[in-house]
Design brief:
The complex is a heterodimer of chains A (91) and B (1001).
Chain A (H helix, E strand, L loop, with lengths): L2 E4 L3 E4 L4 E5 L13 H9 L7 E7 L7 E7 L4 E7 L8
Antiparallel strand pairs in A: 1-2, 3-4, 4-5, 5-6
Chain B lengths: L13 E10 L2 E7 L3 H7 L4 E4 L6 E3 L11 E4 L7 E5 L10 E4 L13 H4 L8 H5 L7 H11 L13 E14 L3 H12 L4 E4 L17 E3 L2 E2 H12 L5 E4 L2 E7 L3 E7 L13 E15 L3 E3 L12 E3 H9 L9 E5 L3 H11 L4 E6 L7 H8 L3 E4 L1 E7 L6 E7 L6 E9 L2 E5 L2 E3 L2 H5 L3 E5 L4 E6 L4 E3 L9 H16 L11 E3 L23 E3 L4 E2 H9 L5 H8 L12 H12 L3 H4 L13 H5 L16 H6 L3 E5 L2 E6 L7 H14 L2 E4 L4 E6 L3 H8 L12 E7 L5 E11 L2 E6 L4 H15 L6 E4 L4 E7 L3 H8 L14 E7 L2 E7 L7 E7 L3 H12 L5 E2 L2 H10 L48 E8 L11 E3 L9 E11 L4 E9 L8 E6 L2 E8 L14
Parallel strand pairs in B: 1-7, 8-9, 8-15, 9-12, 15-28, 17-24, 18-19, 18-24, 19-20, 34-44
Antiparallel strand pairs in B: 1-2, 3-4, 5-6, 5-7, 10-11, 10-29, 13-14, 14-15, 16-25, 21-22, 22-23, 26-27, 30-31, 32-33, 34-40, 35-38, 35-39, 36-37, 37-38, 40-43, 41-42, 42-43, 45-48, 45-50, 46-47, 47-48, 49-50
Helix pairs in contact in B: 5-6, 5-11, 7-8, 8-9, 12-13, 12-14, 18-23, 21-22
The chains are: A mainly beta (91), B alpha+beta (1001).
Chain lengths: 91, 1001
């Protein structure tokens, strides 16, 4: 069980949070203009990286805020956390 | 008459405090401070168990938690019984009753012992090979296998003890209180760090605390007396907490550690009342110092498992710590210097050492010289090739080793003995380190795996780090501590340390024998009866990966997880396949390090606290009125209210009839309620629901359907416009939390530009729903100053009102198809409003109804229940609810998915009504729907989702999903049941009042 540094509340146990899948997948602004394939790409296709992955997490049992986490899935080490709308760290 | 093998007194046991206990029905005596093992040994009892597969007699082998053999059942046939307890760990107490496991009728005469003589028929993988065929016979085999295999018996009664959980946060956690652990804890605490020191034993000091020898000195004091002073000092440190009898079970990532603190298991039974038995500590440490020490290795030779064969370190511990001799004629067998320390120690206590067998030829150290000086006969370059004695060792055979150590030469010598202490060197206890994700490296010079890469802020120190001797410890520990704790110096520098230990070792994983391997029983895993022969067989059969060999031979799969023999298994594989140990790797060490009881794991979450449940503000009334309850999510909801011995069916029929004929009342408080405010609230609802919301007038209500982005129905409910920028959304009872979560997700991540605020108000309001033709008469009396005329208060609208001084919101909405009013009041008024409705409704015979009747009434109207009539594969179109999907709106969640190639298929499963040919035949929910029963395989068209007997229609009704069902109106289908076929006709899902006349009746 790891510890997540919520950008709003600080360090808390993982059990207070819920994972929300891959980050930086933006909902298309005009879904109706997309082909089935393009829509399916948004809807279903997710990476499943062994290594550094950008993820969304929500502090369910805390501030209820969504934010982004950069986590190495091979050892659960969290490299960075940042708020929604902020640019992901480059290194 | 049993012998007394108690030798010179030891300060660790209190000889003035005599304790009686029973083992296998016989009463023995021991002293306070004894473990069951030490007390049994003092009474000359070695035979304590039978082995798992061959039922061979087994004795106590170790003096710690690594014990593979001496596992016993405590308090058999009582509620406190516990299987698989290590006799080497349990401290004796007045009233202790222990018995041997896996033997029948007794440990002395065990029928299963026949397996020992059939052992050539029971090779590795025996069960896999034999019982695979024929498959149908498995049930018959299983009965006998289960009967003959197995360890202890699990209790059959509820556990009467109390368990607890506790969180601990600390700067530094030190695991293990041996000399390295004590030095670490003291250094950390003295440098202002909040430190926790845990140890599985009842005492501090590890093995150094009884290392009372002139050969091991620290600053001119014997190591034990130096350490004792250190311990006395650390006990005074303020920011150091010490927990003994606390065993670390698991080491997870981010320094999250689970430990079991044993609080009462050592107390007499009558002193345990109302005390917490064990506590699961959930420790989150900023830094962890692992000082778990090392485990002595046995040696692998023929018949190395007899009672009376112990680890040499165990012999020493029993003598020094407990004052117990394990035998009167002791022989030691070694490949390193450790046994000489044992020999000298035992000799000083007057315990006779017959001989030492050392597989090394050229040896020379202070310890060896001293042993020789004491006239102990040393056989250099020899190995034990066999042992004799069925229930207790009485004789060993030794032979000389060849120069290369591959075979034995010369003639056999026999030595009589009643105890054999063995030492194959030491294995660092790296279990916790690897659990945490740490990687090991192999050190060739002494053939050990030691920690290499630490994954979190932790360090291994002392012998678990491969620094076995006192001089090594004083060399490395201060250095590691300074670096790890980021401090300038420790108090342990430039110490004068005397350690006479010579590190030379002749490592032979499988000692040679004069017999062929097939004729030997050289045990590698004592608990699971896995021998060197089995491992070699597995390799011959083609198994290569250590993980496969482990599972095939069951090496290391017992309750001791192979703490003693895993290294030898690896060694034998490495030697046989000519591969390098470091490249083979180890098997995975899994938590818990030692077994945990279920009680400790669940803690206080038992009985009514097993799972939390939620009650509505009106709950007490339902209880007083004998409602039966149903679990809906975490809620306890009134299911039905049986009267005068009614069955569920009878009660539901009565309630349903009453609600349609006069008046019914339902506690709807559990529905999820979300308060939505903000200038963009209408736009937000437009985006989350399938229908349009902008034009909903203030004071009006609207039903909405919410989809997932994949177009599948997710939730539904009525939302009311309270004001311009203020809505109250209701969700399904089970969906409240996830709907709120989903809405927040979209608001925060996709549409942060919207000015909308969401608040969960489910618990804030109680909801009393009154329905039926007389509902208006009742609510208009309860809320007297509100105009309930259809003109002023039509269906799908809402009013603010007051009951006396209590503010309430009244919605005229209906889930039953009847005229219906929902009164929402602040929770704490819920029960009084309910009671008022009951009182006023008396003249109309108002009938409380539960969820079952609610479900029946809505099914008559063809209203869906999300999650019952839908699963995550139903679109609104599949539900024949096209009317609620806005064609005009540019976008809403899930819209694009409604015309994906898959969702527009016409043969998708669609919701339809089902009418049985026989109106009395009620279908089973979940039953399959087919059309042609003779076709093979029978094509499944769908299944029944809801089914009831309608008292208002006097017939059976059902909803179901059927492939292409929309186009099958009037078609006959078949529901095959185990003993019959039921004919049904596809119908409109609305069975009653299609014109909605009752809403305004």
């Amino acid at each position: 069980m790891f510890v997540i540094n919520c950008p709003y509340c600080g360090e808390r146990e993982q059990s207070e949070f819920k994972a929300g899948g891959e980050a930086h997948i933006v909902r298309p602004k005009q879904p109706t203009e997309l082909s089935d394939d393009q829509w399916a790409e948004y809807l279903f296709m997710r990476k499943n990286i062994k290594g550094v992955q950008f993820e969304r997490w929500v502090h369910t049992h805390g501030c209820r805020k969504w934010f982004n986490v950069v986590r190495d899935t091979s050892n659960d080490l969290i490299k960075a956390v940042y708020k929604m709308g902020e640019k992901p760290p480059t290194k | 008459m049993t012998k007394n093998l108690r030798v010179k007194s030891s300060k660790f046991v209190d000889e003035t405090y005599k304790i009686s206990f029973k083992f296998n029905g016989k009463t023995y005596y021991g002293f306070k401070g004894d473990t069951l093992a030490s007390a049994l040994l003092a009474n000359d009892v070695h035979l304590v168990a039978r082995s798992f597969k061959y039922h061979r007699p087994r004795g106590i082998m170790t003096a710690g938690s690594e014990e593979p053999n001496a596992i016993v059942q405590l308090h058999n046939n009582t509620s406190r019984t516990e299987p698989n307890v290590r006799a080497t760990e349990i401290e004796i107490y007045e009233g202790l009753e222990a018995s041997s496991q896996n033997c029948w009728p007794s440990v002395n005469f065990d029928i299963g012992g026949i397996n020992n003589f059939l052992s050539s028929l029971l090779p590795a993988g025996f069960y896999y090979k034999t019982f695979m065929w024929p498959a149908s016979f498995w049930e018959k085999y299983e009965y006998f296998i289960r009967k003959s295999a197995g360890l202890g018996k699990s209790p059959t009664e509820p556990d009467p003890d109390i368990y607890d959980h506790k969180y601990i946060h600390c700067d530094v956690l030190v695991i293990g209180s041996g000399i390295s652990g004590i030095m670490s804890a003291k250094t950390a605490a003295k440098n202002g760090l909040k430190t926790l020191l845990v140890d599985e034993n009842s005492y501090l000091g590890g093995s150094t605390i009884y290392q009372n020898s002139e050969h091991f000195k620290i600053n001119n004091q014997t190591s034990s007396s130096w350490l004792e002073k250190e311990i006395n000092e650390i006990k005074k440190l303020e920011n150091l907490e010490i927990k003994t009898r606390t065993s670390v079970a698991a080491y997870h990532g981010y320094n999250f550690i689970l430990a079991r603190e044993n609080l009462t298991d050592h107390l007499p039974l009558d002193q345990r009342k109302n005390k917490i038995r064990q506590r699961l500590l959930k420790i989150r440490a900023k830094k962890v110092i692992t000082a778990t020490g090392s485990l002595e290795r046995p040696l692998i030779f023929d018949n190395n498992d007899r009672p009376g064969i112990l680890l040499s370190s165990a012999l020493k511990k029993y003598a020094n710590l407990f004052g117990v001799a394990c035998g009167e004629k002791n022989v030691l067998f070694t490949n390193n210097d450790s046994v000489y320390e044992t020999a000298i120690s035992l000799h000083q206590k007057g315990i006779n050492i017959e001989a030492i067998i050392d597989n090394r030829e050229e040896i020379d150290s202070k310890l060896i010289k001293e042993a020789e000086k004491n006239n102990i006969k040393i056989y250099k370059g020899y190995t034990v090739v066999n042992t004799n004695g069925f229930k207790r060792i009485n004789n060993i055979s030794i032979m000389q080793l060849s120069k290369d150590g591959q075979k034995v030469v010369g003639s056999k010598k026999n030595i009589n003995c009643d105890c054999l202490g063995v030492s194959g060197g030491w294995t660092p206890a790296v279990h916790l380190f690897t659990q945490s994700g740490g990687k090991l490296k192999f050190r060739d010079e002494d053939q050990v795996f030691i920690p290499n890469m630490h994954p979190s802020d932790q360090v291994s120190i002392g012998s678990c780090n491969g620094d076995f001797t006192l001089d090594e410890i004083f060399l490395t520990v201060p250095k590691i501590l300074k670096d790890f704790l980021n401090i300038k110096k420790t108090e342990y520098e430039n110490f004068e340390v005397q350690s006479s230990f010579n590190k030379s070792k002749r490592n032979i994983w499988l000692l040679p024998s004069d017999k062929v391997i097939g004729k030997t029983k050289s045990f590698v895993d004592y608990q699971n009866d896995a021998t060197a022969k089995d491992i070699k067989l597995a390799l011959r059969e083609g198994f290569r990966s250590i993980e496969h060999v482990k599972r095939y031979t069951t090496t290391g799969m017992g309750t001791d997880q192979g703490k003693l023999g895993n290294m030898h298994a690896l060694g034998i594989i490495s030697e046989t396949t000519s591969s390098k140990m470091g490249e083979l790797g180890t098997t995975t060490f899994r938590p818990p390090y030692t077994p945990l009881t279920f009680g400790t794991i669940v803690g206080r979450n038992v009985g009514e606290y097993f799972d939390i449940f939620r009650k509505t503000p009106i709950h007490d009334w339902h209880v007083e009125n004998k409602a039966e309850f149903e679990n809906v999510g975490q809620w306890k909801r009134a299911w039905y209210y049986p009267k005068d011995g009614e069955t569920m069916h009878e009660a539901v029929q009565r309630e349903s009839k009453a609600a349609r004929d006069s008046a019914g009342i339902l506690d709807a408080s559990t529905l999820g309620k979300i308060d939505i405010q903000g200038t963009d609230a209408s736009e937000f609802l437009n985006r989350v629901y399938t229908n349009a919301w902008s034009k909903l007038a203030i004071g009006k209500c609207r039903y909405g359907l919410m989809l997932n982005e994949d177009g599948m129905v997710y939730d539904d409910g009525v939302t009311t416009r309270l004001d311009d920028n203020h809505y109250l959304m209701t969700t399904t009872t089970g969906g409240a939390a996830t709907v709120l979560g989903k809405l927040e997700d979209y608001l925060q991540t996709e549409w942060p530009e919207l000015d909308v605020y969401l608040t969960s108000v489910t618990d804030h309001y109680a909801t009393v729903s009154v329905c039926g033709p007389n509902s208006k008469k009742i609510v208009s009396q309860v809320i007297s100053d509100l105009d309930f005329s259809d003109e002023k208060f039509p269906h799908m609208s809402f009013k603010n009102a007051k009951i006396g001084k209590i503010k309430c919101r009244v919605m005229r909405i209906s889930f039953t198809g009847e005229q219906s009013y929902e009164i929402n009041v602040q929770s704490n008024y819920g029960k009084s409003v309910w009671e008022k409705c009951m009182e006023v409704g008396k003249e109309f015979d108002i009938t409380p109804y539960g969820t079952e009747t609610m479900h029946l009434l809505r099914a008559e109207k063809g209203f869906i229940i999300v999650g019952q009539d839908t699963d995550a594969t139903m679109t609104p179109i599949d539900l024949q609810m096209d009317w609620i999907v806005s064609k005009k709106k540019y976008d809403f969640i899930g819209k694009r998915s409604l015309y994906r190639s898959d969702t527009i298929k016409e043969d998708r499963k669609q919701l339809v009504g089902l009418i049985t040919e026989d109106p009395k035949e009620v279908l089973e929910e979940g039953a399959q729907i087919v059309t042609d029963i003779n076709k093979s395989p029978v094509e499944m068209l769908g299944h029944v989702t809801s089914s009831y007997y309608s008292p208002n229609l006097n017939k059976s009704i059902a909803l179901g999903v059927v492939k292409g069902g929309k186009k099958m109106m009037g078609q006959k289908l078949i529901i095959p049941m185990p003993n019959k076929k039921i004919n049904v006709v596809v119908a409109d899902p609305v069975f009653l009042d299609k014109e909605n006349e009752r809403l305004n009746a």
